[in-house]
Design goal:
TIM Barrel
């Protein structure tokens, strides 16, 4: 393994979590350093990352100054620390931080820039394919149309592709706490951009008390057009939320799924039918869904044969890169190099891509991993 297993539940309580900064190479000798360098070279897919939660602090600072928006701090490092959600009590408090980032994301140039930078940042970390999700309706407060709020991020993604070679697409999100009519409008927007860079429809926002089935019409519109569906579920609400997402709303993937283990029958169904879970370790600890990294059910799900992939969720609020998430799986849950390559491959297998494009990415992944293993 890359590091020793830490399965302990002890030191960190569910209400007093001490998150380490993004992991660096530990002083455990040259062999460990070699293994971690190899991990950083591992090609990966990122399937669950929110645009409005993943700004560079420097960009947030610059745009806030240009637009006269308030910030909790006015230098990049202090702002980076201020935006991290280490001390939030729950998912609701975690989500409140997004008002700061959304305030500077109300123009086409800002959306294009932030998306381009996010693609470039992923490419610099070895990510070959990324699906970036966001809700265009949250970016119309200062006059943008919904269509303009999709065109701009698509331009940013294509610019990142041209500059780095990364492949990227968008996922459009409905918001649980909004009127389901808005979700239906957003699903129709996603369908309108199908084949032009939008590959799926999602439902995000505060989960508890806002059931996915209230938005069934939106999901039906997406599915009628053969558009893929992923739904945030099993994070702030239990396995019944996952059940609704899959069986009533037709989800092809599940965002988080942390509380799936509470329903063994549903857990077996998810394994048997290979519904992928988009696992976000750091965010789940920050929002108290998992009390510690070592107590997270990622290891349980992997050992049972559930298809899953590691994701960052919100790079700014969680203070992580995708490399960090893989390192934490190794450090706290005992994942070996071979197991992490399987997790990475499942990311490509679970991508919302045509079969031939997915096959090309998988062939490239296998070739690169063979080189790394040599």
């Amino acid at each position: 393994m890359l590091r020793g297993t830490d399965q302990g539940d002890g030191a960190d309580s569910a209400r007093n979590v001490s998150l380490a900064p993004p992991l660096t190479v530990p002083p455990d000798g040259p062999e460990i350093e070699h293994q971690i360098r190899r991990l950083r070279a591992l090609p990966r897919a990122e399937l669950h990352v929110h645009l409005d939660g993943s700004l560079r602090p420097e960009t947030l600072l610059e745009l806030a100054k240009e637009k006269g928006k308030p910030l909790p701090a006015w230098d990049p490092e202090t702002l980076r620390r201020a935006m991290r959600a280490d001390d939030d009590a729950d998912l609701t408090q975690y989500l409140a931080r997004f008002e700061t980032t959304l305030s500077v994301m109300q123009s086409a140039p800002a959306l294009e820039r932030i998306t381009r930078e996010l693609g470039e940042d992923h490419a610099a970390e070895g990510v070959r394919y990324v699906e970036i999700r966001y809700s265009p309706v949250l970016h119309t407060r200062e006059g943008l149309t919904l269509e303009e709020a999709v065109d701009a991020p698509l331009r940013g993604l294509r610019a990142a592709e041209a500059a780095t070679g990364i492949r990227g697409n968008l996922i459009i999100c409905g918001i649980r706490t909004m009127d389901p009519v808005v979700s239906t409008e957003l699903a129709e927007l996603a369908v309108a951009f199908q084949g032009r860079g939008v590959v799926a429809f999602d439902l995000a926002g505060g989960e508890a008390g806002y059931p996915a089935e209230a938005h069934r019409e939106a999901f039906q519109r997406a599915r009628d057009a053969n558009l893929a569906v992923t739904i945030h579920a099993g994070e702030a609400w239990g396995p019944s939320s996952i059940h609704q997402a899959i069986h009533r709303c037709g989800a092809n993937r599940i965002g988080h799924g942390t509380r799936l283990q509470e329903d063994p029958a549903l857990e077996s169904w998810v394994r048997d039918f290979q519904v992928p879970l988009e696992i976000c370790l750091t965010c789940n600890v920050q929002t108290r869904v998992a009390p510690t990294f070592g107590a997270h059910p990622l290891r349980r799900y992997f050992d049972q044969g559930i298809r899953l992939t590691l994701c960052t969720d919100n790079r700014l609020m969680s203070g992580v890169t995708l490399v960090d998430e893989y390192l934490r799986a190794a450090e706290h849950l005992g994942f070996t190099w071979e197991e992490l390559t399987k997790v990475a491959r499942m990311g490509f297998e679970s991508a919302f891509l045509p079969w031939d494009e997915k096959g090309t990415l998988l062939a490239a992944f296998d070739a690169e991993v063979a080189t790394l293993m040599a």
